[in-house]
Design a protein that fits this description.
Molybdenum Cofactor Biosythetic Enzyme, Chain A, 20% helix, six-stranded mixed sheet, alpha/beta, 435 residues, binds adenosine monophosphate, 9 helices, Molybdopterin biosynthesis moeA protein, domain 3, elongated, five-stranded mixed beta barrel, Molybdopterin biosynthesis moea protein, domain 2, 26 strands, binds magnesium ion
């Protein structure tokens, strides 16, 4: 068994005391193996699930050439054979509506009244929209300018949306609203998806109180479990809330082992730095394969990452990937989005999708030291020209959760970036796309 320690050392820039975010992300990515179990679900239940196999179109969509407009269908020869005549006159021989095809023959002096979505009558390939055609008082003929339509205009081709045999959606795709419609258009009522990832999480700390409990002096309500619950819910994993665990080695060990027994991933918050009540470290060294990192990142410096087992020694019982997140509420969110999110998506079987960054001009100078990545909370707005501007929210302390609620983006200040001047360009990550 390769241990995380052995593996990590091989990653370039590995330094457990100041690990760059990109190096940590690279390690995490390598250890995030997708779940293999697959289940068949009805189409509606596939929303937000991860496709386990490519979907190959069993039919052409649309199945027949059809009209894109309400108008009159005819053969293109009508236009080419009109010679120098500037107008074309055709007699109406029938009608086709969506779902009601016209099955008769049509010659080069004739046309068929067609509605949008109606099958193109045999040999007809061009439609003149009704707005461009003048209908005679007797209703049996139409007339239109020969240059009003190009040959082949206003016709949708069979298979134009999806051709039979073509891959319509790839394995690893997270099914979206348009995909449900697309699958329905193929007549597919059931699909194979990966089983949901199971993620167990708990908070650690003697000072933590659950909702409904009185708050004694020095205590705080446990907010991390609620943020984690919400972030996990958005990723559509099965989230298993294991409550608050006291800063006692025996309680922590029991909680970690039962979490590993029931989940693919275990997330904890608190207790991973170097304080006197931070027992996680000692414990995990005995029955986990866990690296304790000091990330070159702010907030979110202390982070533990590795594997834990339900048995009493590494390798015994069932394994789970483990993230020991910092205790500070903002640090929990930042480390979740920068490190945990991608791992959970990959383990769910989804293809990795980096979070988009956009450029914004900083409304003020920002203090920043080169050598670590910072995720400041910011408020971004767009001006009339479409240019984004951003300002940090007031307090940037990692304990101030209200800074996250006030903000609408992270201001991402790169590892090598130094002080930011007013007006300088910075990267932002809008919450709307992630949170
Ligand atoms: P720790 O990493 O355990 O030293 O915790 C760092 C800070 O985060 C301390 O001020 C804790 O009280 C706070 N904290 C830890 N866990 C939670 C939590 N679940 N909810 C709110 N605050 C927390
Ligand atoms: Mg603590």
């Amino acid at each position: 068994m390769t241990t995380l320690n052995e593996f990590s050392r091989c990653v370039s820039q590995y330094d457990p005391h100041a690990l760059p975010v990109s190096a940590a992300q690279a390690i995490v990515r390598q250890w995030a193996a997708p779940v293999t179990a697959v289940e068949r679900v009805a189409l509606r239940d596939a929303l937000d699930r991860v496709l386990a196999a490519d979907i190959v179109s069993p039919i052409n969509v649309p199945s027949h050439d059809n009209s894109a407009m309400d108008g009159y269908a005819f053969k293109r020869e009508v236009l080419t054979e009109s010679g120098n005549a500037s107008t074309v006159e055709l007699s109406i021989v029938g009608k086709a509506l969506a779902g009601h095809p016209y099955t008769g023959q049509v010659d080069a002096t004739q046309c068929v009244r067609v509605m949008t979505g109606a099958c193109m009558p045999l040999h007809c390939d061009t439609v003149v929209p009704q707005e461009l055609a003048e209908r005679h008082a007797d209703s049996t003929t139409i007339r239109f300018a020969a240059n009003a339509v190009a040959p082949g205009a206003n016709r949708r081709l069979a298979g134009e949306d999806l051709a039979c045999g073509q891959v319509a959606l790839r394995a690893g795709r997270i099914v979206r609203a348009s995909d449900l419609g697309l699958l329905a258009s193929l007549g597919i009522g059931e699909v194979s998806v990966r089983r949901r990832l199971r993620v167990a999480f708990f908070s650690t700390g003697d000072e933590l109180r659950s909702l409904g409990e009185p708050l004694e002096p020095g205590c705080v309500y446990d907010s991390n479990r609620y943020t984690l619950f919400a972030m996990l819910r958005r990723l559509n994993v099965d989230a298993l809330d294991l409550g608050v665990v006291r800063d006692e080695p025996a309680a922590l060990e029991a909680a970690l082992r039962s979490a590993a027994a029931s989940a693919d991933v275990v997330l904890t918050s608190g207790g991973v730095s170097v304080g006197e009540a931070d027992f996680t470290k000692q414990l995990l060294q005995t029955f986990g394969d866990v690296a304790f990192w000091s990330l070159a990142m702010r907030p979110g410096r202390p982070l533990a990452f590795g594997r834990v087992w339900s048995g009493e020694r590494p390798g015994l019982g069932s394994p789970a990937l483990f993230f020991g997140l910092p205790g500070n509420p903002v640090a929990v969110m930042v480390t979740f989005y920068q490190l945990v999110r991608e791992a959970l998506l990959l383990m769910s079987g989804a293809t990795s999708q980096p979070l988009p960054l956009i450029h914004a001009a900083s409304r003020q100078a920002i203090r920043k030291r080169a050598g670590r990545t910072e995720f400041q909370r910011g408020v971004a707005t767009q001006d009339a020209q479409g240019q984004w501007h951003v300002a940090p929210t007031g307090s940037q302390s990692s304990g101030v959760l209200s800074s996250m609620s006030e903000a609408n983006c992270f201001i991402v200040l790169g590892h090598d970036q130094g002080e930011i001047d007013e007006g300088e360009r910075v990267d932002i990550m809008l919450f709307d796309s992630i949170i």
